[in-house]
Design goal:
The protein is of the alpha+beta class. Helix content is 33%, strand content 17%. The chain has six helices and ten strands. The chain has a six-stranded antiparallel β-sheet with strand order 4-5-9-8-7-6. A four-stranded antiparallel β-sheet has the order 1-10-2-3, covered by helices on one side. Strand 2 and strand 3 form a beta hairpin.
């Protein structure tokens, strides 16, 4: 990857832009004391302690200008405005990173329900999580729900060389949903959907075996609706892989 470019950028806290001057590519080798000196308390809590910023607090939510969103821990390009969309969640959201090497995805079981955690590939900083409820019109169908406090923004006109680098990386290694990334979510949705469908089948069997039943009630049919929803979610996730 090309050397980091240090320039003025928009961040979650404009008063801390000077921190960019001490960012280096060997961010994975920094001690926690060095991270604390470099980052603001909010940035450190999210990037190094896997925290989450409050919704609707990031200035990046309102940015629609063409440009690149970068990691505050290492200044590595992560996302482009072309993939940004308003998810209504209160966090900056994207349909895909700039390429397959920008971020690292893994299964997060902290809340028992499996989630896909997104980390910066260069400095291993926590960025947010990825969900399968992105725009249906996008190529991934995913929502990269990121914490704006750990990203900065550089407009295209500020650094044409950065624009060229991002374009080249996007064309060389375009991001695509991998089977390993989707599998935990697919299995979870398949199990939950199967449980609801089983409840529906049990209700129908009970109705048929009961005497004097006048008809099928709404409560007996109700489990079918979440079963169909989870089934649709599984089918959509599988279709995005291939």
């Amino acid at each position: 990857m090309s050397p980091i470019r240090l320039q003025q950028s928009i961040s979650a806290d404009d008063d801390d832009n000077d921190n960019n001057d001490i960012i280096t590519k060997n961010s994975k080798d920094k001690t926690e004391a060095e991270w604390r000196d470099m980052l603001t308390p909010d940035q450190y809590r999210v990037l190094r302690e896997d925290g989450t910023e409050p919704p609707n607090t990031s200035v990046l939510n309102n940015i629609n200008q063409k440009g690149v969103f970068k990691c505050v821990g290492c200044n590595e390009p992560l996302f482009a405005t072309d993939t940004k969309f308003d998810s209504g969640t209160g966090w900056p959201s994207f349909t895909a990173p700039i390429d397959s090497q920008a971020v690292t995805l893994s299964t997060d079981l902290k809340l028992i329900v499996p989630r896909v955690e997104c980390r910066c590939s260069t400095c291993d900083g926590h960025l947010g999580h990825v969900f399968d409820d992105g725009p249906a019109s996008s190529t991934t169908g995913q929502r990269f729900c990121m914490n704006g406090v750990v990203m900065s923004f550089t407009a295209n006109e500020e650094d044409p060389n950065l624009v060229a680098e991002v374009q080249e990386r996007s064309e060389r290694q375009p991001y695509k949903l991998a089977i390993g990334q989707a599998l935990p979510s697919v299995l979870f949705n398949l199990i939950i959907g199967g449980l609801f469908f089983n409840a529906f089948v049990v209700n129908m069997s009970s109705m048929q075996s009961s005497s004097g039943v006048g008809g099928v009630g709404i409560f007996e049919v109700l489990p079918l609706f979440p079963a169909l929803y989870y089934g649709f979610t599984v089918a959509r996730s599988v279709s995005r892989i291939f």
